[in-house]
Amino acid sequence: MKLKVTQENLNKALGLVARVANTRGTLPILSNVLLKIEGNRLSVAATNLDIAISCQLGAQVQTEGSLTVPARLLQDFVNGLPSGVIELEQDDQRLKITTDSYKSVINGVSAEEFPVMPAIEGGTSWKMSAPLLKKALQQVLMAASSDESRPVLTGVLFQTVDGVLYAAATDSYRLAEKRLTELKQEVKLLIPATALHDVLRIINDHEGDITVVHDDQQVQFRAGDVELVARLIEGNYPDYRKLIPTSFATTAVLARSELVNITKVSSLFARESAGSIVVSVDEPSESIWIHAVASQLGENNATLKVDAKGSGSITLNSRYLIDGLQAMDAKMIQIGFNGKLEAVMLAGSEADDYLHIIMPLKS
Amino acid sequence: MKLKVTQENLNKALGLVARVANTRGTLPILSNVLLKIEGNRLSVAATNLDIAISCQLGAQVQTEGSLTVPARLLQDFVNGLPSGVIELEQDDQRLKITTDSYKSVINGVSAEEFPVMPAIEGGTSWKMSAPLLKKALQQVLMAASSDESRPVLTGVLFQTVDGVLYAAATDSYRLAEKRLTELKQEVKLLIPATALHDVLRIINDHEGDITVVHDDQQVQFRAGDVELVARLIEGNYPDYRKLIPTSFATTAVLARSELVNITKVSSLFARESAGSIVVSVDEPSESIWIHAVASQLGENNATLKVDAKGSGSITLNSRYLIDGLQAMDAKMIQIGFNGKLEAVMLAGSEADDYLHIIMPLKS
Questions:
Q1: How many CB atoms neighbour CB B40 within 10 A?
Q2: H-helix or E-strand spanning residue B13
Q3: What does the alpha-carbon distance between residue B242 and residue B116 come to, in Å, rounded to a whole number?
Q4: Domain B2-113 falls in which CATH fold?
């Protein structure tokens, strides 16, 4: 392997790929990136066995070959180089890197030992806009569980219902659902939230379409020259749509940013009670109240004028309320609830493609 | 105590003062701020017994009084409030805080239990420009030691020599000295670096003069409405000026930013050797070389064209070289050294008010 690439391109590729390489695993080669000539391009790839990311970049190729080298070192090194041309040359299991000012040798490991994820063959494929997928992931990922004892809840469900694709996640304390796009194919994919955090990273600057390809076992996201493959989660996802309330005894319509502010301030007084706050809506006075008590520290009452229908109060985890409100887009939102034991729903006050549900705390 | 203040002023005062309050100490009241009416102003103060910071702000005072309340809670709370008028009212040992939207009660502790640092009486006093002091602290603080076994080295020495005030710090591995200003008074103050980090914080936005007042035990920095008092370190500071080399067998003049870059990149290969790199200057080829070897990872040679006088090489800790270079202001710098066991000096290539000395590693 001998080739020339620009520092800019190699640095960008390593920035997308190298973070997947894991220096603390039991298999040392997983801390390496695979460099491989494919035609007249250089492929840079890394995997943690659950997901694999690869990126192709233009190169001036002199001889073929492949090698793995420590991901972190190569990334930090290339990132520190001045912009311009870099020459890479393989010398058995060593990678020589030369620029005007630098002559470096990085010790590597044979590419034959690098684990490759199985290809997706004959799968289904569809496209969606990268900015829409990015927004959806930002809005639902926080609701996925990090508790491995119920693996299905650590995923995000991509599912078509009546020809519309939705993304949804729940950790059983809260639920977020985003309406994505109309789609002819029937889709039901449960994708690990951890993999989707990496998807979010690789599509971050991508303006065009994302191609999604999947079979029963794996899903691939392709954004330009970057590909990410992840294993799907097996198991039955709960029928979360049954949990979405369709009518409310009490609703309040108000500016989202103002409710965020008073909830944040109130949460300072909720530390002793594990974040517990009481939200009350009062129709006669057209107001919402948030009450928090910290027996040692003191107490806080905050209020806002709202458009209220019905009166009632409910106890919530302030952290979940802040997360939910911050995930929303709408300026004016509606908070709606029924009894003290039923779910609270946050949604835009106008028709919206996002809803967020929070289960109450016992009070 | 009953008064009105603006959220902006109280928030700014708490931002300057509250960080000194320590929630992990053995004396619980040290995690509180003291609020105290002084004339028609509110004084906000905190201390950790080594330093004390206080800030005065304009207030509309109705009744006198004083109280201490948890610093972190009050700061976070006030920071979250909308701008506008806040009413503070003392109710025995509780502080009631009222705004348009909030009614809060924070439980406090009597002001009588709050420790007060002794006043500086009949001390010496002088002034210097805040931006100059800020720059000096940014340039010398990193050279102070954090090893409490030699307390004098944990301080920064402010000392007049022949009518000029210098600030200097050394941890015995490196030394930084900044020429500050001409000064008529004779000054010799050893001030804890930890206190000076707080000084840096309180003078950060201050454009005018700083007043420095000190006696044998304490020093006070006054910037507008903010005061910081710190205990001085006792003991004899080493005569560091003897260590400053006055001539060099080898010198190189080059752009500081370029030397920073190649040192950073080289340091990636110096992790296995505790940061050790070899810096070589070669007069015939007019170049500087940095060589780093990581037996497992590989090796790196980096070079730059320089204006060289004499040839030689020396082994340095790359971290110290980067720190020193980054603390400098000059665009073009000179690196000079003698034998392998003698100190390396970094200074501006033109007359400069800052110098940085690094002791070599054994090679």
A1: 10
A2: helix B7-17
A3: 40
A4: DNA Polymerase III; Chain A, domain 2 (3.10.150)
Condensed to tens digits (0 to 9), the pLDDT of residues B24-68 reads 778 999 999 999 999 999 999 999 999 999 999 999 999 999 999
Q: How many helices (H) and strands (E) does chain B have?
A: 6, 26
Are the Cβ atoms of B104 and A73 closer than 8 angstroms? no
- What confidence tens digit (pLDDT) does each residue in B256-307 have? 999 999 999 999 999 888 899 999 999 999 999 999 988 788 999 999 999 9
**For residue B302, which residues of chain A lie inside 8 Å, CB to CB?**
101-103
**CA B242/CA B187 separation, integer angstroms:** 19
Range in A68-82, A115-129, A132-146 the model is least confident about: A115-129
Q: Tell me, what amino acid is at A96?
A: K
Helix axes B193-202, B130-140, angle to 10 degrees: 140
DSSP state of B24: T
Give the pLDDT confidence score for residue B159 in this predicted structure: 97
Give Cβ neighbours of residue A103 (< 8 Å, ≥ 6 apart): A96, A97, B300, B301, B302
Nearest to A76 among B101, B105, B268 (CB): B268
Residue range A244-358 in CATH 3.10.290.10: no
Fold (topology level) of B124-239: DNA Polymerase III; Chain A, domain 2 (3.10.150)
Domain with CATH 3.10.150.10 in chain B: 2-113, 124-239, 244-358
Measured between beta carbons, the chain A residues lying within 8 angstroms of B77 are 265, 268, 300
